[in-house]
């Protein structure tokens, strides 16, 4: 086999590889994490300020799975005069399993979500609320492992 045939074979193999990668790339399902991602990016300064306000309290928000439910415990100082709040669980593997709830903690600062609302996956937990006219925000990765 002469060198000219070898060059043609290498060139054809290279082109086949390029077309294969184009086919694989066209089959990908690329989704943004949020529907209005760029608009929410503009509001991110409010989240940074809310996280600073929560850090200033010095007591953390804790998220745990207890008795088959997801329990979120807030510092009492952060919900003293609770006004309004939103909790979002963004499922990183399946957008249809996202949760968005109105936040209503009890007198002890605990908010409970039934485990039936979750699948075994990784979530991005986002919380924003207003208490005592001060905005608060909390972000954390949350792994729900029970099925």
Keywords:
147 residues; alpha+beta; 4-stranded antiparallel β-sheet; 3-stranded antiparallel β-sheet
- The overall strand count is 7
> Order of SSEs, N→C?
HHHEEEEEEE
CA-based shape: elongated
With strands numbered from the N-terminus, the spatial order across the biggest sheet is: 4-3-6-7
Low-confidence stretches: none
* Cα-to-Cα separation, first versus last residue: 60 Å
> What gyration radius follows from the Cα positions, in whole Å?
24 Å
The helical percent reads: 25-40%
Q: Quote the beta fraction.
A: 25-35%
* Computed structural class: alpha+beta
Describe the sheet with the most strands: 4 strands, antiparallel
Q: With helices defined by DSSP (H or I, 4 residues minimum), what is the helix count?
A: 3
Mean pLDDT: 86
Your description of this structure?
This protein is of the alpha+beta class. 30% of the residues lie in helices and 35% in strands. The protein contains 3 helices and 7 strands; from the N terminus they run H-H-H-E-E-E-E-E-E-E. A 4-stranded antiparallel beta sheet has the order 4-3-6-7. The chain has a 3-stranded antiparallel beta sheet with strand order 1-2-5, with no helix packed on it. A hairpin with a 2-residue loop joins strand 1 and strand 2.
Describe the secondary-structure layout.
Elements: H1 3-26, H2 37-42, H3 44-57, E1 62-66, E2 69-73, E3 82-91, E4 99-102, E5 110-114, E6 121-131, E7 134-144
Task: Explain briefly what this protein structure is.
By secondary structure, this protein is an alpha+beta fold. It is built from three helices and seven strands, in the order αααβββββββ. It has helices at 3-26, 37-42, 44-57, and strands spanning 62-66, 69-73, 82-91, 99-102, 110-114, 121-131, 134-144.
